[in-house]
Amino acid sequence: MIKICLDAGHYGKYNQSPANKKYYESEAMFKLVERLREELLTYKDVHVKTTRANIEDNPSLYSRGKKAKGYDLFISEHSNAVGSGVNDSVDYVVVYRSYKNNADDLGLMLAKAVADTMGTKQNPRTSIRKSEKGEWEYYGVLRGADDAGCPQFFIVENSFHTNPRSTEWLLQDSNLKKLAQAQAKTIADYYNLSKKVFIPEKAITPESDPKNIKWAQEKLNAVLPDWYPRLKVDGDYGSKTRIAVLILWDSLGWGKHMK
Predict the structure, then answer these.
(1) DSSP single-letter state for residue 124
(2) Nearest-angstrom CA–CA distance, 46 and 1
(3) The whole model's pTM is what?
């Protein structure tokens, strides 16, 4: 069992982008964490918790990191900034890791996965920052995770919300889902995790859960004859899905009584 603690970088409406006033780092990263949690839970033997129950919760930086006690991995999601104005020349992903840990392979894997997904201009990288006042991590969330005994802890800066292109990209929910999928797959590859095999427990009807209907639509698309258009996997048991079921039944010799 791999235990992962996820942290959305800020609460409420925090860090508004100068490139697009609709963007707040807090809102985008809260959405990203929720999607990343969902993606991670599609893998076997994974337990995930988040440091905020809702976006208005505002625990301290250190206490958020301390919530990683007993966990294998802590990730705090952010978007970066260059000053307070628009800057379209700086566009890269950086993952902050422990200054004590020279083996930053997972951190670099995450940085590359985010950069490839977002299509950033500059090369992805990892970085460290040690406190100037003592032998501890500079960033409060990482200091908390370190003190909690978590072996791997990172801050992921998903490019810059001072960059117009990156800001527009991060404003799209579909892109946040892609980002969550990329990060989840990277974590799964690192820990050798495999996907759960999902099989609905009950017969699928128009009243079934959309997740179950999507499963049926995917299976139907794999076996339907070439002349029938592929179904949209949307969880809606509509007329096209019903016809697809009847076509399958008929091909199996089950449909003679359904005329």
Answers:
(1) P
(2) 6
(3) 0.81
